[in-house]
Amino acid sequence: MSGPRSAPRALIWANLALLILFPLAWAAPLVEAGLIPFLDGETISILSGVAALWADEPLLAGLVGLFGVAMPYAKTLALAGVHFGRLSSRWLPALEVLGKLSMADVFLVALAVIVAKGVGWGRVETAWGLPLFAGCVLASLAISLATGRARR
């Protein structure tokens, strides 16, 4: 196992920044719904979406929580472990797969927005949290890929 100097400092700092940015993205508004009877005027975040789903769809809430919250954060922590020599580089391929699976949440939100707009009920607008969350997931994936290249 090698120490933190085997990965460029920029990758290490970018990964550590995700430990702050991910929780912000989970609480940030993803979509704003207007004129939809059950969502009129509501702003929906990942955390509020999981909480709302929990009562009626606990399995779906668990999947969103797993892919949108737990996996990206665990991946970020594990990558920090690789950067600081606490985990072997052999973890990198698994971390890259976790990063790709985390994109599932971004696609689900985008699909929900498209469906809601297509139904023609009211208005659904994406908010600043969606690009923030998507950017965090993409940055995490890029950091793990770049770390793998730096280790070779």
What percentage of residues falls in helices of 4 or more residues? over 70%
- Strand content is 5-15%
- Structure summary, number of beta strands: 3
CATH C-level category = Mainly Alpha
Examine the coordinates and then state which fold CATH places here, giving the name of the CATH topology. Answer: Butyryl-CoA Dehydrogenase, subunit A, domain 3
Poorly predicted ranges: 1-5
Integer tally of domains? 1
Write the element-wise H/E pattern from the N-terminal end onward: HEEHHHEH
What does the radius of gyration come to? 17 Å
Widest sheet: strand order?
A: 2-1-3
**Structure annotation, total helices:** 5
- At CATH level 2, the architecture is Up-down Bundle
| Euclidean distance between termini CA atoms | 13 Å
Silhouette: elongated
Summarize model confidence as the mean pLDDT. 82
Structural class: mainly alpha
The main sheet comes to:
3 strands, antiparallel
Element layout with pairings:
Layout: H1 9-27, E1 31-34, E2 43-44, H2 46-56, H3 58-83, H4 92-119, E3 123-126, H5 129-151
Antiparallel strand pairs: 1-2, 1-3
Helix pairs in contact: 1-3, 1-5, 2-3, 3-4, 3-5, 4-5
Structural overview:
The chain is mainly α and 152 residues long. It has a single domain (4-151), classed as Up-down Bundle (Butyryl-CoA Dehydrogenase, subunit A, domain 3). Helices cover 70% and strands 7% of the residues. It is built from five helices and three strands. It has a three-stranded antiparallel beta sheet. Strand 1 and strand 2 (43-44) form a beta hairpin. The longest helix is centred in the last third of the chain and has 28 residues, at 92-119. The chain starts with 8 loop residues before the first helix and ends with a helix.
